[in-house]
Amino acid sequence: MNKHLHIICFTVPYPPDYGGVIDLFWKLPALQKVGILIHLHCFDYGRGVQNELNKYCAAVHYYKRKTGLAGIHFSMPYIVASRKNDTLLNCLLQDNYPILMEGIHSTFLLNDVRFNHRKKIVRLHNVEYNYYKHLSQTATSFFKKIYCLAESFLLKKHEQKIINKASLFLTVTTKDKITYEQDLYCTNAHYLPLFIPNNWMIDIDESQGKYCLYQADLSVQVNEQAAIWLLQNVFYNSGIPFVIAGKNPSEKLKNIIAKSKNVVLQPNPSENE
Q1: Which of 72, 78, 216, 231 has minimal CB crowding within 10 Å?
Q2: What is the pLDDT of residues 115-154, one digit of tens each?
Q3: Does position 204 have pLDDT exceeding 70, yes or no?
């Protein structure tokens, strides 16, 4: 008998070019290998259709995420409300397969009574209300700070509300598991390590000598700030080669790096790089 699973992804999980997507993508071949037929549902807001996903899934569905004012709901976090989609809900109601929701972002259906009888699993990629609280503390604009504080408040209310509505919560760290148990009184949280390839090895090019590497999605402000802090407080004119690699670095970061002789920027590195 075939085993089917719906997976709702908060983004298109290919290419696996930053931390959050690595777990999303490599989960697919791992589940396929044990005979799971995956019905993948992903929200597209810039990554586009990725034919690579068809290799691992029985079906792949794409939905446009509501952005800007269209995604705002005053009693629901923006990251959740902007992914509420009636077409997706109706598709899920066509069968009784279990549903895996990737991230709090994808948990809009937990408040829908039509899914009360379904097996529902939430993969937690962060304790989101804490994450947005920290983002508010590092935000440089007043608007961004207020948005992150409001989102943190709404996220905690949402997570408290859904804590007894999922069959299982799977965390990426033991620290997140403890937070869910102690702060939200969750009794069904379990730690499940990140999915990565079994043969994943870092091939170090020794011809480049010794150097330190910082890799992140540099379009995320907190990651950019971390790179700048390391550059200015640890590596600036230290003589230690420092490589900063990641997606979409800003002009601000490029200009700061250009002033230091021992720092190299590798923007948008490929899988091989």
Answers
A1: 72
A2: 999 999 999 999 999 999 999 998 888 999 999 999 999 9
A3: no
Percent helix, strand and coil across the chain, each to the nearest 5: 40, 20, 40
Tell me the domain boundaries of the chain.
3-191, 206-267
Is-contact 88 64, C-beta < 8 A?
A: no
Domain 3-191: what homologous superfamily? Glycogen Phosphorylase B; (3.40.50.2000)
Q: Name the residue with tokens 């504080």.
A: 149
Beta bridge partners of 189: 169
The string of DSSP codes covering 222-245 is HHHHHHHHHIIIIITTSS--EEEE
Residue pair 228/234 in contact by the 8 Å Cβ criterion: no
Structure confidence by residue, pLDDT tens digits, 208-231: 567 888 888 888 888 888 888 898
φ, ψ for residue 126 (rounded to 5)?
A: -165, 165
pTM: 0.85
Which residues 6+ apart lie within 8 Å of 36 measured at CB? 3, 4, 5
DSSP state for residue 166 in the 8-state scheme: S
Residue-wise burial string across 92-130, b where 16 or more C-beta atoms lie within 10 A, e elsewhere:
beeeeebbbbbbbbbbbbbeeeebeebebbbbbbbbbbe
CA 190 to chain CA centroid, Å, is: 18
Q: Which residues contact 262 (CB under 8 A, 6 or more apart)?
A: 235, 237, 238, 239, 240, 241, 242
CA distance 186 to 163: 6
**What would the mean pLDDT of 31-56 be, rounded to a whole number?**
96
Rounded to the nearest 10°, the torsion over CA 173, 179, 180, 184 is -170
Question: Do 249 and 217 form a contact (C-beta atoms < 8 A)?
Answer: no
